[in-house]
Fold this sequence. Notes:
The complex is a heterodimer of chains A (64) and B (246). With 64 residues, chain A is of the alpha+beta class. Chain A has 2 helices and 2 strands; from the N terminus they run E-H-E-H. Chain A has a two-stranded antiparallel ribbon. The longest helix of chain A is centred in the C-terminal third of the chain and has 13 residues, at 51-63. Chain B is an all-beta fold and 246 residues long. Chain B is built from 1 helix and 16 strands. Chain B has one helix spanning 68-74, and strands at residues 9-12, 15-16, 21-34, 45-59, 81-86, 95-104, 109-113, 116-125, 130-141, 150-151, 160-169, 176-187, 195-204, 206-212, 219-226, 233-241. The chains are: A alpha+beta (64), B mainly beta (246). Chains A and B meet through helix 1 of A and loops of B.
Amino acid sequence: xxxxxxxxGPIDQRLPGADVTAVYTDEVLQRLIEDxxxxxxxxxxxxxxxxxxxxxxxEAADGD
Amino acid sequence: xxxxxTSQAVLVDEFIFNAAxxxxxxxxxxxxxxxxxxxxxxxxxxxxLPEWRLTQNGYFVGGNADGFADELHDRLGATGAQVAHLxxxxxxxxxxxxxxxxxxxxxxxxxxxDGLITMSGEWAASAGGHRGKxxxxxxxxxxxxxxxxxxxxxxxxxxxxxxxxxxxxxGSVNGTSTDTVINVGSSATEGGTYxxxxxxxxxxxxxxxxxxxxxxxxxxxxxxxxxxxxTSVAVTAIVVVTNVTE
Lengths: 64, 246
């Protein structure tokens, strides 16, 4: 899980967007999230093969 | 342009002795501990604990109660004085150095020339000092209203300290009233919703200290919510936000 400073403004002189993962204790982090200064950034979902890629792979397999 | 020395102020509890002070020297020093070893190619040091000391040189202007000489003597070897050095009292949001539990460690008196006697106070810290920002200086409040905000540029996650110097009540340095209430509030935006970070309830002049906890927003101001029995109070307010102003 990743945590960054929100657009509400700097916190402890860390600018919005700064990565604060593992900077704060759980208790402080929870409070900063509730106060709006820190937001949790969810990791992007695992990429799935596109349909075209699947088709190309199938054609390549059929051509063998 | 450098700030003029005449823009300074030294506050000792309720007192402002600018007119009796000739020069000020604030020293924040850090001890150096030698950690050089037999594999070192040069001297090696590690920093120790900081020491705060404020030397206030001035003039003997009589031994009156509430005078410079009297108040320096009252605090000689006695902790509990709240002392602040303002390098620029003429501008808010400028650095303010506070020794919140100080004592006077020396009281030298000299007569270098005919007709002039000098004396000094040496404010030592019993529990360190803090670097904060000036919210307002010697402002006379006559109504229930918020003051002007200052912007620290960043919020703080770990609280801090708020200091209020009450210089006069109803125009008197010895004034008293019943429960005047002034709080320090913080907001994420100027003019937004201000959370109360600390509250001062007082009925006498003097120096007051409060601790702030948790998140402190970047915009700070004092807000007089009740004048109590006073018609006017004159105050200086300083705020220290951990990880932001110090």
